[in-house]
Inverse folding.
């Protein structure tokens, strides 16, 4: 008799947003019959799907989560958007499909008496992992978007870069522990085009094309260190605008209206003008304008305080100058307790050093942007940590490797002469500044907790 098993929920970042999924696998006689991929949705969207007559493609569980089916045994449904379709089509050890299938296998093993190898045979990527592209080409990138009216196209320069790394852990047992952790993954991205289109329906004639992002298989998972922090910063600068400069600026902004006002004054009789300028304030204002223009004409300054003992009110204000990009410092000390852990440590150091190196193009005429990094604080269940600030995509700016962090040269007695301890210090910088949209419209990082209960960035 056929039975169904539900996997644990799987989080995966798609086009910059974390989305939550599970699999529902039907099996009979130790064989997988079919697998559904379902995405977590809101209750409102669930009710809308039902009202639209799509109740067969939605579900809810006893934990209060609602789902829509996005793939039925490999066939996409009407709820599969373009970005999700691309992610489902990717292959490799760390791909979205691989994570989904691994969750399905875990559920089958937990709910049946069969060995893991029995269920792995039902999922092709555990037998034959397809390569995402040749190491010397730009495989895996999406085609550039089509220009609108005027397009300064990006120059496509493909670098020689390694596309597959191992999933590395220190300490080795962190993968099976209940310890919170920090995970580093890599990706690379193309440049982007600049378009000018006067018929843009959004009203902005200047637009930037989307960058094409290609994930790189492999990751480094380390324990969260003490002293973690972040610093959000915006740059302001003081600005002065005295009344005379402001008046002259208003004439420059609207010379037609200013000219009309001057003409109206010139057409008035003398007595009316004298009444209008009869007050002390008006007379002082006229005198200040004359003095200001006089000192500008002769190329000097300070005539007003010299002649009156006063200065024009500078109207000093603090004005926004620019957002600031955040930097993050990490330091990890790693001491091997076994030969396999020693190999993990050396591969972890290489992961960062090789990833941050510039890449040569095929012709060696250009060097190409290094790999970029995603950094995530994770809880033991694989979700983003709700009580630590998130980090946007980063570049690794510097890495310092200490081979004798204890102050003494000492190695193990192995053929590789492995150092007893290593320490790496890394500086990352975010690629983009933060905006309020990152807090209000960003992805839900944990479906069990509302966004308002999480720090965000």
């Amino acid at each position: 008799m056929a039975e169904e098993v539900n996997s644990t929920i799987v989080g995966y970042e798609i086009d910059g947003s974390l989305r939550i999924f599970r699999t529902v696998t039907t099996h009979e006689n130790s064989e997988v019959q079919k697998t559904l991929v379902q995405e977590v949705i809101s209750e409102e969207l669930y009710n809308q799907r039902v009202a639209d007559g799509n109740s067969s493609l939605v579900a809810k569980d006893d934990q209060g989560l609602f789902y829509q089916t996005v793939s039925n045994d490999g066939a996409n449904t009407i709820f599969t958007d373009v970005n999700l379709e691309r992610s489902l089509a990717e292959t490799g050890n760390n791909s979205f499909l691989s994570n989904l299938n691994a969750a399905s296998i875990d559920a089958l093993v937990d709910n049946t008496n069969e060995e893991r190898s029995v269920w792995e045979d039902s999922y092709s990527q555990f037998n034959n992992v397809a390569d995402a592209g040749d190491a010397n080409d730009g495989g895996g990138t999406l085609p550039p978007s089509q220009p609108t009216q005027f397009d300064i196209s990006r120059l496509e320069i493909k670098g020689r870069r390694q596309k597959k790394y191992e999933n590395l852990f220190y300490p080795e047992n962190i993968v099976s522990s209940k310890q919170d952790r920090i995970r580093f993954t890599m990706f690379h991205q193309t440049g982007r085009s600049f378009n000018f289109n006067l018929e843009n329906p959004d009203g902005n004639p200047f637009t930037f094309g989307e960058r094409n992002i290609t994930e790189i298989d492999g990751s480094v998972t380390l324990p969260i260190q003490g002293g973690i922090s972040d610093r959000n910063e915006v740059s302001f600068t003081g600005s002065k605008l005295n009344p005379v400069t402001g008046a002259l600026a208003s004439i420059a902004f609207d010379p037609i209206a200013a000219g009309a006002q001057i003409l109206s004054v010139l057409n008035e009789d003398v007595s009316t003008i004298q009444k209008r300028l009869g007050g002390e304030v008006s007379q002082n204002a006229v005198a200040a304008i004359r003095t200001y223009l006089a000192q500008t004409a002769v190329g000097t300054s300070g005539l007003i305080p010299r002649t009156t003992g006063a200065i024009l009110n500078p109207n000093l204000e603090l004005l926004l100058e620019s957002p600031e990009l955040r930097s993050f410092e990490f330091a990890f000390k790693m001491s091997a307790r076994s030969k396999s852990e020693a190999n993990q440590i050396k591969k972890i150091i290489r992961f960062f050093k090789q990833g941050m190196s510039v890449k040569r193009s095929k012709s060696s005429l250009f060097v190409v942007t290094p790999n970029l990094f995603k950094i995530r604080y994770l809880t033991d269940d694989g979700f983003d940590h709700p009580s630590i600030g998130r980090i946007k995509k980063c570049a690794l700016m510097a890495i310092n490797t200490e081979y004798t962090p204890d102050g003494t040269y000492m190695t193990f007695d192995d053929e590789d002469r492995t150092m007893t301890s290593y320490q790496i210090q890394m500086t990352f910088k975010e690629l983009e500044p933060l905006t309020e949209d990152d807090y209000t419209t960003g992805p839900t990082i944990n479906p069990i907790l509302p966004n308002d209960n999480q720090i965000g960035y």
Notes: The longest helix spans residues 280-297.
